[in-house]
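Researcher: We're teaching a course module on how sequence relates to structure. For the next exercise, students receive a sequence and then see the predicted structure as C-alpha cells, so they can try to spot secondary structure elements on their own. Here is the exercise chain.
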Amino acid sequence: MKFKINRDHFNSGLQLVSNVVSSRKTMPILQNVLLEAKENTVFLTTTNLDLGIRCCVKATVEEEGSVTLPVKELSRIVRELADIEVSIESSGVTKVNISTRGSTFNLLGIDSKEYPPLPVLDQKDSFSIPRDEVLEMLKSVSYAQSINEERYMLKGVFFKKDKKDLSLVATDGRRLAVAGTALKEENAESLCEFILPSMTVNELEKLPRVGDMIQISFTDRQVEIELKVSEEKHDDQGLRGSIQLISKVVEGKYPNFKQVIPKDNFKKAGVERELMQECVSRAALISDERITLKIKSQEMEITGQSLMGDACENLPIDYEGEDATVSFNPKFILDPLKSVRKDKIILEFRDDMSPGVFKVEPSSDNNISILCVVMPIRTD
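Model: And here is the predicted structure for the students to work with:
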C-alpha cells in the first residue's frame, strides 16, 4: 500500500471516525482504524461492534492495499505534522511509514484481514430526509434521553415513521421531548419504529455539512445512515462518496409517549425564547434546584430561592388570563430553551400539579414541530 494525502483532509477523516472505537482490551483491533487505499480514495472505517462508521477521503494512490492502525496514535501524528502533503507506505503486512518533509514515523498495526467487516443490511426499507432537518430534530429532543442503565430502552431516541410523518422522541421519565415533520419524498409510505442508541445519536449529530440529504435504511435490528457528499463540497474537507453509520438498534418496545402529552385545555402564553432563557439562567444561580414562574397578564415573574438568598426576574409575555403559579427544575426548562432555534415559543400551563409544555409550531420557513413536556415541582 502506498499513497499521498493532504494532511488536513486526512485529519478530517480521522476525526470523523475516531470516536467509534472499542475500549475492550480483549479485542485490540477494535481500537484501530481500517485504512483501505484504492482508486485514488482512502476508506477509513472504525467499529465497536455496536456501531460502525466509514468515510472516504481523496488521495493519490500509487499502490492499493489495506492495514489497520491505532486510531488515537495515528490521529495525534497526523495532526502535528508540519507539511501539508503526507506520504503513507506499508512495508510488510502491518508496519506503516508516515512521512512528510523532515518527519518520519513508523507505526505498527494489525493485519486488515482480522478486522470485523461492517454489517450489510438485507431486506431493508429506507427513506430520505434533509440533513439539516433531521439534525435540528435530534438537537430538539436528544437532551431528554435517559442516562439510567436500568432503563436501557430510554437510552436513545425513538424514531417513528407513519407513512409521510416522522417523529423523534426522547424521555428520561421526568420530561419528554418530541419533534415532528412531514417527509416530502414520494416513496415515503413505509412504516417504521426503532430506537437509535445514544452513542449513535451523538455521532449522527456530528456529521459535517458536506451533503444535503441523509438516507436512513432499517431492518428489525440495524439502521444504516448515509450522508452523500455533494460534488461541489469535495474540496472543503477532502471527503467524497458518502459517510456511513451502521448501528444496532436498542431492543425492546418504546413506551407509549402520547399518554404523557396533556390533552386538557391548558392556558397558553407566548414567550421570547432567548429572553426567558436568560432570566431562568440568572434566577437559577441562587436556587435549590427549583424556580417558580408566576404568570400574570402580560408578565412573567421568575424567582429562585435557597438558604443563601433569593433572585427575581421579570419579563413581558403575550398572555391574557387568570394568574397561575408553577415550579420546575431550572435545568428541565433551560434544555428545551437552548435547543430550539425559533425566537418565540408557546408555554402551556395550568397549576402547580400539572406539567408544563413548551411548543414550537411549524411555519412556512420551517416544517418542524417541537413539543417538550416537563414534570412540575409542587409549590408549597
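Model: If you want an answer key for the exercise: Helices lie at 7-17, 71-80, 131-141, 198-205, 234-237, 273-283, 330-339. The chain has seven helices and 25 strands.
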